[in-house]
Amino acid sequence: MASLDTIFKAYDIRGTVPGQLDARLAEAIGAAFARFAGAPRIVLARDMRQSGVELSRAFTEGATGQGVDVVDLGLASTDMIYFAAGRLDAPGAVFTASHNPASYNGIKLCLAGARPIGQDTGLADIKALVATGVPPAGRRRGRRTEQDLLEDYAAHVRSFVDVGALRPLRVVADTANGMGGLVVPRIFGPLPFQLEVLFPDLDGTFPNHPADPIQVENLKDLRARVVEAEADIGLAFDGDADRVFLVDETGEPVSGSTTTAMVARSMLEKHPGETVIYNLICSKAVPEVIRESGGIPVRTRVGHSFIKEVMAETNAVFGGEHSAHFYFRDNYRADSGSIAALIVLELVSRAGRPLSELRRPFERYADSGEINTEVADPTAVIERVAAAFSSAAQDRLDGLTVDLGDWWFNLRPSNTEPLLRLNVEAASRENCDARTSEVLDLIRKGA
After folding, report:
1. Which of 361, 346, 173 is closest to 263 using CA atoms?
2. pTM of the entire structure?
3. Burial state string for 99-115 with b = 16 or more CB within 10 A and e = fewer than 16
4. Is the dihedral of CA 197, 200, 206, 211 positive or negative?
5. How far is CA 354 from the centre of its chain?
6. Longest Cα pair distance anywhere in the chain, in angstroms?
7. What is the pLDDT of residues 203-252, one digit of tens each?
8. Which helix (DSSP H) or strand (DSSP E) does residue 300 occupy?
């Protein structure tokens, strides 16, 4: 089935509705997931996209047809489904397309205990089952029940900080009409913050701006409101509210790498000597801060499946990605933007200094940001670039990483498109810009 190749990605299932993903296919995926997971019950949720109502209902039909019970949480953020899969020790599925436009929907899956499912850890098997078809189990049909775990999840998030240390900071959260509009008030509302939420209404058409905070243009409203309100911090959540980007009190965005370094230091103060995971496009400042804080840095590939796997192998207390996914051992090794945001708010509260000052020691280098280039043959281009830097230190953990001492870059292919993703970091802005142009010239020579 060509459509399956289109919608089954490296880490989840995602496509346009109804063109690529419809109720019939959702029912087949529900049956396949139930058969693959082999558990007596599944936890299910959906985000605010209207198509999620029909799709989750069809998924339930497929799963219950396998004799599996479905516990429906209703509307929930993705990090809440991971919490539920851990708390209830059951596989989980959430219908969401995260930051994608309104025409999309998808499914993120996990096993009991919030263990990840990716291309190599189950998605390929589920895809194969969907392709061949899964007949009804021939035993009693499973039951669908409903359960509300929002308050339990909110209390769990708050357990990561000393609530008594929090000050009445002014916090502006832009939830972009996504699931943050549901979970953010419940998590942060009982705390001693002056909380203002921008675009809190759940609306999967995203009438105000795309729910994709990694794009700086989507932070415009938040940055302006933080300055206007003289707020201490801004929080920008993506559509399914599992990621968060920070904005300091001057309206300046904070990178995912800087947030990773700040949270790592805080976690290592509470858990001395522990291991912290970071992916290979994070700033070099991240492993430096981990070592300075007495921790053990471990470098991984990009992507939640890989990070969660390495966290389990090393028993790491925390993991961070430049894309603003933040993972916590005591959160079933799953990611949660809300936990990361709350830890930074605790840092600001304890320091008694603004975030614009607190961030400076963690920002040691200049970076290019991720630059995408469409190429006909990504593998050939990577090999040509590798040959041009053959005298430098290289590794192939994820694409090509080349380290030349005072600057480095990573070039890796997209999992789904004929794109190469370039990240460059150097000691100065001038050097970073020059080196970025140098590598891009090599890439585009054969694009």
Report:
1. 346
2. 0.95
3. bbebbbbbbbbbbbbbb
4. positive
5. 26
6. 67
7. 999 999 999 999 999 999 999 999 999 999 999 999 999 999 999 999 99
8. strand 296-300
Range from 305-314, 384-393, 437-446 that averages highest in pLDDT: 384-393
Angle, alpha carbons 313-162-170 (nearest 5°): 115
CB 126 within 8 A of CB 63: no
- Asked if the model's pLDDT at residue 446 lies above 70, the reply is no
Provide the residue type at 321 as one letter: E
DSSP secondary structure string for all residues of 111-136: -GGG-B--IIIIIHHHHHHHHH----
Assess contact for 297 and 276: CB atoms under 8 A.
yes
Length of the chain: 447
Scanning the structure block, which residue is given the tokens 């994820």? 398
Residue 11 tokens read as: 């880490």
- The C-alpha atoms of residue 285 and residue 438 are separated, in whole angstroms, by 23
Strand partners, 351: none
The sign of the dihedral angle between the CA atoms of 87, 92, 95, 97 is positive
Confidence of residue 414 (pLDDT cuts 50, 70, 90): confident
CB contact at 8 A, 282 and 319: no
**Which residues are designated catalytic?**
98
